[in-house]
Structures are given as structure tokens and as C-alpha cells.
Amino acid sequence: MSKVSNRTKIAAALVGVLALAGSNLVAADPLADVQKADGQIHADAAASQKKVDKFFDQAQDMLFEYGTVADERESLKAYNDYVATLVADQEASMKAIQDDINGVDKLRQGVVPLMFKMVEALEQFVALDLPFNTQVRKERVENLKNLLSTAEVTLAEKYRLILDAYSIEREYGNFVAVNTGKLDLNGKEVLVDFFNLGRVALYAQSLDQKTGWMYNPETKGWDTMDESHLRELTKGIRIARKQGALDLFALPIPAAETAK
Q1: Considering all CA atoms of the chain, what is the largest pairwise distance in Å, rounded to the nearest integer?
Q2: Which of 139, 252, 245, 141 is nearest to 195 (CA)?
Q3: CA-closest candidate to residue 251, choices 234, 229, 235
Q4: How many CB atoms lie within 10 A of CB 202?
Q5: Chain centre to alpha carbon of residue 171
Q6: Distance of CA 159 to the CA centre of its chain
Q7: Which residues form the signal peptide (predicted)?
Q8: How far apart are CA 154 and CA 107, in angstroms?
Q9: How far apart are the first and last CA of the chain?
């Protein structure tokens, strides 16, 4: 009896020890779980922080890119506005040019008759003017008349040449010149020095300086000058040829009524 009881007690003790050990193991499991969960939380937090940092960096890059794109947009807008202004100005210029082109026909209709009238008036003027450089001036008028009927020359060039001819005629009124030529006196040609004071008066003097004539616009002939004027005429001719010093000289001139 006693041995059995002892064995029973020992077995009971072992069961108790095992039960206590089992209870300690069971109690230790929740703490491990907490520690494990805490570690997981820290790991997740670290991973989340990395994601946050990554997203922040991406956001900063996107913000920088946005600023760059915004600046480029403003620059492009300013350039587009500038180009639009140029295009508008070019369109206005093209319209003005087109209007000019459309008006060419009207301009031509007005200019062509005007040019014919100008050449005709110039021809009449040369015929009525003092007879100096007559051959050259008449040839100039004839060239202009032929030019008007030439298709190879542009309208602008024709008009320019007519204006040049008018300019030359205008300059004739401001010059003093001497030219040697032949004077026709009643069918007889005499070699003389022609001396003209612009369009005020035209004179002629024989090369021996013994005879002088003054052109009479009223009779379209030559009047013999008084011998008292020959010295002054010679003086004027010498000055015009720059063979004498500048000085005053006195010569008769046609009356104002007949010098038109």
C-alpha cells in the first residue's frame, strides 16, 4: 500500500509540474505576439516612410516640371502674340499692295494721256522758245514721242524720262553759255559765237567780233546790234568762257512783253 501511494504521489507531482510548465508556455505566447506585432508595425512604418519620401520627391519633381512648363507656356504665349502681330501687319501690307495692284489700271488710264500731253507741250515749248541748242532739244522731244509707242519700255521708265527732259529744260533758264555755230542770215550762213543768258536773251557775234546780233522773239529773226554794244558782248562771251574775270556787263534785252 505504501509503495503504491508513493508512486501515485510522484505521478501526481509530475503531472503538476507538467501542468505548471504548460501554463507558463501558454502565458508566454501573447507577449511574443505583441513583440512580433510591434516589430511588424515598425517595419511597416519604415516602409510607409520610404513610400512617403518617394512620393514627396516625386511631388517636388512634378512641381519643378510644372514651373518649367508654365514658364515655357508664358514664353510661347508671348512669342505667339508677337507672331500674330507680325502676321496682322503683313496681312495689312498685302492688302495695301493688292489695293495698289487693283488701282494700276486706273493709274495707267490716267497717266498715259498725261504723258502724251506732256510731250506735246514740251514740243510746243521748244518751238516757241529761244533757238538755242535747237537740234539737241528737238531730237530729245522726238525720242520721247517714239518712246511712248514702244512696248519694251515700262510705263514708269517712260514717265521718268519725260520728267528728266522737263528738268533739263528747266535748267536751261539758269545758265549762261557760249557755243560756236552757223547763223543763217537771209540764206547766208555766218560762223558766229552764240551767247545766251538763260531764257532772257540770245545773242550772236561774228568770230572777228565786228558784228553782233540779238534774237527777236517777236519777229523770229535776228536784229543787228549797235556797235556800242559789241565790246560788252565780247566781254560777256569771254566771262562765259572763263577767259576773263567776273565782272558786270550791259547788254540790251528784248522787251518784257515779247520775252514770253
Answers
A1: 201
A2: 252
A3: 229
A4: 22
A5: 33
A6: 24
A7: 1-28
A8: 14
A9: 183
What pLDDT sits at residue 109?
A: 76
Is-contact 220 134, C-beta < 8 A?
no
254 and 214 in contact (C-beta within 8 Å)?
yes
- Residue pointed to by grid coordinates 486706273: 106
User: What are φ and ψ of residue 122, in 5° steps?
Assistant: -65, -40
| pLDDT tens over the chain, length 260 residues | 444 455 555 555 554 544 544 544 444 466 777 777 777 887 877 888 888 888 888 888 888 888 888 888 888 888 888 888 888 888 888 888 777 767 666 767 788 899 999 999 999 999 989 988 889 999 999 999 999 988 899 988 999 999 999 999 998 888 888 989 999 888 889 999 999 888 889 999 999 999 999 999 888 899 999 999 999 999 999 998 888 888 888 898 887 654 44
Which amino acid appears at position 175 of this protein?
F
Q: Which three cell numbers stand for residue 251?
A: 547788254
Amino acid identity, position 161: L
Give the per-residue SS3 of the chain.
CHHHHHHHHHHHHHHHHHHHHHHHHHHHHHHHHHHHHHHHHHHHHHHHHHHHHHHHHHHHHHHHHHHHHHHHHHHHHHHHHHHHHHHHHHHHHHHHHHHHHHCHHHHHHHHHHHHHHHHHHHHHHHHHCCCCCHHHHHHHHHHHHHHHCCCCCCHHHHHHHHHHHHHHHHHHCCCEEEEEEEEEECCEEEEEEEEEECCCEEEEEECCCCCEEEEECCCCEEEECCHHHHHHHHHHHHHHCCCCCCCCCCCCCCCHHHCC
Task: Classify residue 183 by burial, with Cβ atoms within 10 Å: 0-12, 13-18, 19+.
Answer: middle
Rg, Å, the chain Cα set: 60
Give the pLDDT of residue 32: 74
